[in-house]
Amino acid sequence: MTGPQSAPKIAVRGLRKLFGRKRVLDGLDIDCASGESVVIIGGSGTGKSVLIKCILGLLHPEAGSVRIDGIETVGLRRAARERFLQKFGMLFQGGALFDSLTVWVALARAIAAEPEIIFFDEPTTGLDPIMADVINDLIVRCVREVGTTAVSITHDLVSARKIADRIAMLHHGRIIWEGPTAEIDRSGNPYVDQFINGRAEGPIQMEIRAA
User: What count of other Cβ atoms lies within 10 Å of the Cβ of residue 194?
Assistant: First the structure.
């Protein structure tokens, strides 16, 4: 992990992304240090995958900055972006559409080239608890032994607690809390508290639509 004077491996500032009139990211800021594992939590549809895709350059934000190793990547031309993508490994999956063997193979491929940065999108969703823990162990080893910087999004709090050095919560387009994993149970943030305890009552109101 970087020292206190080191520049972040990933630095996101003021990121704003809209889809039509819907503001998904609204001035979001987040850093990720070299060799750090950061897990982003938040409800469904809060923009977690959109954030990762903006960092990767798969989506273009309306405003804001994404710096990788101190270099601005928003607006890079195609050739320069392709060079940056060589730093990245990615594991995107669609929940139960992926069985445990598929996830294992995809993860092995993602880390085979020892990327500097790897992104995990719900890596344990749909897996049984034992296979999920195998995947978690592999992610931890990837970060600790290879020195890879990891950014993960997950609804699996067991996984988040195991793989994260730091957890950040995304809500209404912004990071509303972030801190060391060990501090999440005493965050003092009512949104975080409701989310990690899975309570229906609280400041996060879920919209339920009739079929």
Answer: 16
Helix then strand then coil, % of the chain, to nearest 5 = 35, 30, 35
Every domain of the chain and the residues it spans: 10-197
| Confidence (pTM) | 0.86
Q: Which of 5, 35, 38 is nearest to 179 (CA)?
A: 38
H/E run at residue 110:
helix 100-112
From the candidate CATH numbers 3.40.50.300, 3.40.50.2300, 2.60.40.1940, 3.40.50.720, the one assigned to the domain spanning 10-197: 3.40.50.300
CA–CA distance, 90 with 141 (Å, rounded to integer): 16
What does the pLDDT look like over 106-144, one tens digit per residue? Answer: 777 777 777 899 998 888 887 888 888 988 998 898 888
Three-class secondary structure of residue 176 per DSSP: strand
